[in-house]
Structure of Triosephosphate isomerase:
Amino acid sequence: MARKPMMAGNWKMNNTVAEAVVLTQELSNRYKGSWSDRAEVVICPPYVDLKPAVTVLDFDKTKIAVGAQNVYWEPKGAFTGEISIPMIKEIGCTHCIVGHSERRELFGETNEDVNRKVKALLAANMTPIVCVGESLAVRDEGTTDEYVTAQVRAAFAGVEPNDVARSIVAYEPIWAIGTGRTATPEQAETVCAAIRVTLAEQFGPEAAECVRILYGGSVNPGNVEGLMAKSDIDGGLVGGASLDAASFAQLVEACL
Ligand SMILES: O=C(CO)COP(=O)(O)O
C-alpha cells in the first residue's frame, strides 16, 4: 500500500516570533504546494510561534501544516502552564508531537501520559506524531525492539484501529538525537519494521499498513536518501536541519 511520505520539522525550543516569521516566509517562498500531492510537510514550532506560523504559511497556498510539540489532555481548567487541544486547534494546528524523548527524559512524561494525549488528540480529530525510541543503554543490552514496541503498545492502548491508522509514529533513537550520530538505514528499518509488526498484531494489518512511521535522529541532507529508501520508513522527524529553510527543503525533496 502506498503511504504518502511525510517530512516533519521539530523546531524544539528555537525561534522567537520574529525569527519564526522569517523562517516560515522562507519556507513559504520555496514550496508553494508544488510537491503536496507526493508528500506531506509539517512544522512544529514552539507554542508562541504557532499562530504566526499558521498565518505566514497559509496552508491553502503552501500545504505546509503546523503542529504543536506537546499538549495537555484536559480541555481547560486549573492546570497552570499547560496548553489545551482546543487552544492549538482553534489557531489552525492539525498535528501534535507526543512523547518526545526530551519530554519523557527531562519533564517526566510517562507512557500513560502519552496514551492520554494520543486519545485526546484523536478525539479532537487531530494527528498525533507519537515519538518512541531507546537509550544507548537499552540498545547495548540488545532489547531495542522489545522496548520500542512496548512504548508503541502503551501509546495506542485502547485506541480504535481506524484512529491508529491516521496516526504517525516517529522512531527516534535517543542516542542519535542532536548527536550527529544517525542510525544506519538498516538499524532504523529494523526497528520501524518491528513497530509495524506490533501495530499489525494489535490493530490489524490494514491499520498498520496505513500508519506513517518516521525516523528521527540527526537526519540531514547527506543521510536522508538512504533512510528514505527503506520500505518501512515513511519520512523524517527532523530537529536541527529543520531550522534552516534550504536544508529542510532538501529533506522534503528527498522524500518525494
Ligand atoms: O529529536 C529530533 C526530532 O524530534 C531529532 O533532532 P535532530 O534532528 O536535531 O537530531
The chain has one domain: 6-254. The longest strand covers residues 127-132. The CA atoms of residues 89 and 126 lie 8 Å apart.
